[in-house]
Amino acid sequence: MLPLISLNNLSVTLQKNTILSAINLTLAAGDILGLVGPSGCGKTTLLNTIAGFIAQNQGSIQLNHFGEKRTINAEHGIPPEQRNIGMIFQDYALFPHLTVAKNICFGIAKQTNSAQKAQLNTLLKLLKLDDLADRYPHQLSGGQQQRVAIARALAPKPALLLLDEPFSNIDARLRNDLMIELRSLLKTLKITAIFVTHNKNEVFSFGDKIAVMAEGKILQTGVPAEVCQQPNCWQVADFLQLGAWLPITALSEEALSEEGLVISDFSEHRQTTVSSYHSALGPIKNTLTSPKVLSGNKLVLLVKPQHISLRSQGEKNARVEHVAITEQGYHYQLSSLETKNELAFSTLSFYSDELLSLGENISITVEPTPLLIFNQE
CATH class for domain 5-233? Predict the structure, then answer.
């Protein structure tokens, strides 16, 4: 079966600035993709290009719905109104002079009155707007306005729905409720969607798949659990805040001696099998099933809170910089005691049932599983 939409090497340049670079993305019918990344990375530009508001300079968009395959490229464009794509904007973009009912029916005005009424009644019921059909946008709460915007986008029965940070102007509790309702609604109606946000918690809750963007490129795409467990680069792990970074140095098999571990000189970036790593917290054994190949000197290990544990004995190697009480126990942020060491760390985070004092020097051990090592050069 053909995917509902495919982006192939899609690139956009505006005023000689490359905004999107070689974007490749495929969505099957019914998929919900969460598109996440820092502000200014190109997320909204990508949505606007898919919708047809911005023309691509290179690459193609392939749409497959209603049994028809259509390809959009720099030479052959299709106007936005002919793409059968709906869009929900961050600021709702409702028409202030139209009632809720007329806002919802705006995109289906060419249909018969009976068809419009039937679709209107269906959407009013689905989105719990039954008693608000005759009100104007200024008479509605933020949550109600967003429901109207959703209903208006769904009225023409789009094959693909684009959502540009639709919940950013709504308070947290209502945002979560509306997100759950909308996801359920999209699944019920079997509508494919791309949801843009810079909030990692939203993207995990809403998407079947997630795509992480940075500087106009998609760095990684996959199901949320897969991306969290196996980020393909340090930028993905860093943006999703999957843990903290512990600087390390690779130790090759030749670096072992009777006196102990000796750091090898890898300045020439030669490939070598790594037996273990050295850190400010001591040696870390290489547990990767395949040999780790050195590709640079600025190596870091991703350390998650569950990887850290207290030692009752041993040399002190960390200082408590912050203490907070959470549902998971005491939450601590730690810094390295070896501040002048090139392997010193600035922030590690972990939870414990044991109460520690602010500024206390402690002994910790790190046992990361799996071992996620990246080069930040």
Answer: alpha beta
